[in-house]
Design a protein that fits this description.
single chain, alpha+beta, Nucleoside Triphosphate Pyrophosphohydrolase, 3 domains, six-stranded mixed sheet, 7 helices, 15 strands, globular, binds zinc ion, NAD
């Protein structure tokens, strides 16, 4: 079954103008509230076919000492609140067959919740992860406090305000006529090749990041670059910026550190990789933007 790219669909109305302590307190008290709970970085789901990550607010009674809460927005007339619970909480739910504690990548791959919930879960995971890891002021070292219904942390010692971060990553399919460049990292599943990717650096355009990363990883010079689409990637808080770039050179060189292999693939190769009928190579997962980029290129 082909799944849409994961985490791109998020039906929440964010209501960013209403992010204040009152909104968060009201939402947490509202009987209609849908509660999204992460035990550490693992979402807790109501099991089902499909299941859901939108839990009744009464779940909080089973989460003693939960840590931070964020008002994510409204789903129709239901406020949605994300709650961070201690990682050990996951164990206390293990005997309850009505609940499942599953990592967010598996939730997407296995289609355990409706596709629209994946974007909302990505948002919750990235925000709660940020709270978990930014308890102290980067400016003066004092403890910070959650503010703006969870979209800011404030330092009362020096007055600094800290905002949740999103780290941009460029991911690109580099093409040369009827062939495209893909590589594989040692951690990839067997036979899988995917688009090259890398972090955008400060003071760099998206286009230049595509050119630099491709040259660093595969020794290929890139000319024209065009943007295709993007994908939130909540591991922990990236946005993948999908591009197609035109190669100016043919000869691939790589140092074996980042990539263990890189090669040119024909459209016929890629078509068969997508179909799963290639004897030698596999395409990246359908939940990943890389799969979408090569699919679009094959169609062109
Ligand atoms: Zn401070």
């Amino acid at each position: 079954m082909t799944r849409p790219i994961a985490y791109i669909s998020n039906p929440l109305v964010r209501h960013s103008a209403e992010r204040d302590p009152v909104a968060l307190a009201n939402a947490a008290r509202d009987p209609r509230t849908a509660m999204v709970v992460l035990a550490g970085d693992l979402p807790i789901l109501l099991a089902g076919e499909p299941g859901t990550s939108l839990l009744p607010a009464s779940i909080l009674d089973r989460l003693p000492g939960h840590q931070e809460q964020v008002f994510l927005g409204m789903l129709g007339d239901r406020p949605v609140v994300a709650t961070l619970a201690a990682p050990e909480t996951a164990e206390s739910f293990q005997d309850d067959a009505s609940l499942a504690v599953v990592d967010l990548r598996s939730i997407a791959v296995r289609g355990l919740v409706p596709a629209e919930e994946l974007g909302l879960l990505a948002m919750a995971k990235s925000l709660l992860d940020w709270h978990r890891r930014h308890r102290f002021c980067a400016n003066c070292g004092a403890p910070t406090q959650l503010a703006q219904a969870g979209f800011r942390r404030d330092c009362s010692a020096c007055g600094a305000q800290h905002f949740p971060r999103t780290d941009p990553v460029v991911i690109m399919l580099i093409t040369r006529g009827d062939k495209c460049l893909m590589g594989r990292q040692p951690r990839f599943a067997e036979k899988m090749y995917s688009c090259l990717a890398g972090f955008l650096e400060p003071g760099e355009t998206i286009e230049d990041a595509v050119r630099r990363e491709t040259f660093e990883e595969a020794g290929i010079r890139v000319g024209a670059v065009r943007y295709m689409t993007s994908q939130p990637w909540p591991f922990p808080s990236n946005v993948m910026i999908g591009c197609i770039g035109e190669a100016l050179t043919d000869e691939i060189t790589f140092d074996g550190e980042e990539l263990e292999d890189a090669r040119w693939f024909t459209k016929e190769d890629v078509r068969r990789m997508l179909e799963g009928t290639h004897e030698q190579f596999n395409a990246p997962s359908p939940i990943a933007i890389a799969n979408h980029l090569i699919r679009e290129w094959v169609k062109e």
